[in-house]
Amino acid sequence: MIRAVIVDVDDTLCLTEAASFELENDVLAALGRPPMSREVHLATWGETLLDAMPRRSPGVDLDRFAAVFPQWHQRYLADGRLDIIPPENLETLDRLVLDGRTVLLLTSRTEPEVRHLLEPDHVLAGRVTGAYHQGNTRFRKPDPRAFDELLAETGLRPGECVYVGDSPGDALAAGGAGIPFIACLQSGVRRLADFDQRYVTAAVGTFPEILPAIENL
């Protein structure tokens, strides 16, 4: 029985690639650097931000980028340009909770990038039980050990969980940890053919479609 649904954030719970592309280019402009192309951003999407930036902007000063990024990130959040969770996705989380399932987040974001999602007045409050990110995990996807802290702290067994994500790295991490994986293709950034099919338990076109997919596991 599936007791817990673990959800990725970017381009799974909310569609963020396009907004992140604009945000990162605004930061590069503030540093006096030329913009990256959408193609290189898409090619590196799913990697952690500071790991990806040397390819997105070769020669970028990562320390300066890391220092300036939080200001722009907060500006985008305040302007409602980032991390907008659609009502139908919130309704899906509500249904999972009503069905007695625990909802957890597992993301490659840093702690400052996820902190606002955990505020007591955020729409996720009461829907999401906990979040695992770079600030409280030792390993990052696609390393299967990215789930280590989550499994240890919750006492859940891999077979009692399902992970919902949008990237091949998500599938590799889940598969390596023995956790069933649902590929959510709503963003259009990736196709099912991009995934190692050995690690894909089911694929859905929209986030709400995970409900029947989980029932069929």
From TrEMBL:
One GO MF term attached to the UniProt entry: phosphoglycolate phosphatase activity
InterPro entries to which the protein is assigned, alphabetical: HAD-like_hydrolase_sf (IPR050155), HAD-like_sf (IPR036412), HAD_2 (IPR041492), HAD_sf (IPR023214), PGP-like_dom2 (IPR023198)
Source organism, top-level taxon: Bacteria
Single GO biological process annotation from the record: DNA repair
Pfam families associated with the record: HAD_2 (PF13419)
SUPFAM superfamilies on file: HAD-like
Protein's name according to its UniProt entry: Phosphoglycolate phosphatase
Organism: Actinoplanes cyaneus
